[in-house]
């Protein structure tokens, strides 16, 4: 399993929604609401601050475009497949 966090600037997320046909005001509201709700959900149920960087194997900016990010992810998976699996085992201590 590869835990990947995909992110983009607020402006980029809004522009992506507008490009998909969402009216600008709704796009702004949706981006702000979704990010706030996601942070609240993770805080409430997992007692973590969203995003907790250490929980992810990779964090990728989606602003260069879907094709670029997909290719980057594919290359990342190929590199991981070439390494011994014991490198990725870890224990969480509380």
Overall description:
- This protein has 94 residues and is mainly alpha-helical.
- It has a single domain (4-83), classed as P-loop containing nucleotide triphosphate hydrolases (Rossmann fold, 3-Layer(aba) Sandwich).
- 52% of the residues lie in helices and 9% in strands.
- It has three helices and two strands.
- It has helices spanning 10-19, 24-46, 66-81, and strands spanning 4-7, 58-61.
- It has a two-stranded parallel ribbon with strand order 1-2.
- Helix 1 packs across helix 2 (24-46).
- The radius of gyration is 16 Å and the shape is flat.
- It starts with a strand and ends in a 13-residue tail after the last helix.
- Residues 90-94 have low confidence and may be disordered.
How would you summarize this macromolecular structure in one to three sentences?
The two termini are 22 Å apart.
CATH architecture: 3-Layer(aba) Sandwich
Total beta strands: 2
Order of helices and strands: EHHEH
| Spatial arrangement of strands, main beta sheet | 1-2
Low-confidence blocks of residues? 90-94
Q: Please name the fourth-level CATH homologous superfamily.
A: P-loop containing nucleotide triphosphate hydrolases
Question: What is the count of structural domains?
Answer: 1
Q: Kindly, what is the distance between the CA atoms of the first and last residues, rounded to a whole number of angstroms?
A: 22 Å
Rg value? 16 Å
Give the CATH topology: Rossmann fold
Principal-axis shape = flat
Measured as a percent range, the helix fraction is 40-55%
Strand content: 5-15%
Structural class designation: mainly alpha
**Can you summarize the main beta sheet?**
2 strands, parallel
Mean pLDDT: 87
CATH class: Alpha Beta
Count of runs of 4 or more consecutive helical residues: 3
